[in-house]
Amino acid sequence: MEEEYQDYPEYPEYPDSSDYPDYLEEYERPAPPRRRRRKKHRRGWGCLGALLYLLLVIGISLLLSTIAIFSANDVFALIKDSTEHSFVVETDTQLGDLADSLEDYGIINYSPLFKLFIRVTGDDTTIHTGTYTLDSSFDYQQIVRVLQRRETSTVEIEVSIPEGYTNAQIKQRLIEMGVCSETDIDEYLNTYNYKHDYLQGRLPASVGWLEGYLFPDTYKFNANNAKMTLNKMLNNFKSKYDEPIQEGAEALGRTQHEIVTVASLLEREAKADDEFARIAGVIYNRLSNPDFPRLEVDATLIYALGEHKEVLTDADKEVDSPYNTYKIEGLPPGPICNPGYTALYAATHPEEHDYYYYVAMPDGTHLFAHSYEEHQQNIQRAREAAAQPSNEE
Questions:
Q1: What are the φ/ψ torsions at residue 326 (nearest 5 degrees)?
Q2: Which residues contact residue 65 at a Cβ distance below 8 angstroms, ignoring those fewer than 6 apart?
Q3: Which residues pair with 94 in a beta bridge?
Q4: What does pTM read for this prediction?
């Protein structure tokens, strides 16, 4: 068989040399020539630039040296004026948080530097409430030691404790005066077993067990030492419970605790000095007479209620408490406040009489009665006297 041939497309003809420029123009246009950038010549600083650079380096060096010198002086107290400051810490706080206050007091110059120092040394401990003596000449380590009580503070705080204050009132005053923190005083007030011989029969320690034995007086206490503070008051009680008082207690056949309890009632009931012994006589008369099983002393009821009231209601007199002498017989289980020497002496040297009642007058003195009928008349007189000022207005 004969093969059949197909017609294939003809190949395109290449352009001849005469058409080559047009061909290049259509298919390969040459790129436009690139512009050359002129190189900028840097100008040299010359002598002036070098001088300015040198002055800048010297200035920075002097600045850094000055900062280093002043910082070192503050940290190590190389050259610092000596001035004492009483620094008060009002609440327990971290040492680092006191830096700004230390700067305000003029004890340090740079609080951020002090904060950095205690972070590096790891001394950021809790600083307790109190008053501290710090000198501006102290270095940072000395300041830390004083605040942490590694060195004993010589600051003494004068505090007056009035007669008739309860332990709760004494505690509040000591905290307010910056003598000690609440945490410390709670521990030594309620749970610490003191070694005083007159307290041994009442151990172990419990809440309120020192009521009546913190002798009211004017003291000078070292700051931030609750144990020493309370010890000083207990030692004062021991010295004030002297031989005349001991002999009087023996003559009455009363224990020390009973005497302190009676004295605490007198401290809250009596106002005039010459009435302490007379009111003591009323209390002992009622205790020794079976016709008067209950003392019915308002001060004990107020203590039981936990708040002061000018007028006690019948509902108040029904409160369930071992200190409510309108319901219990005899003395309450313990003192209701801390009595002073006048009350202690009167409790052991009562006035001998046959009074069984007394009622307070507006001026703080009392009317005494032998019988209930006479007592009712005295109550009426006291009410009329109390109403007199308002009638005159």
A1: -85, -15
A2: none
A3: 126
A4: 0.63
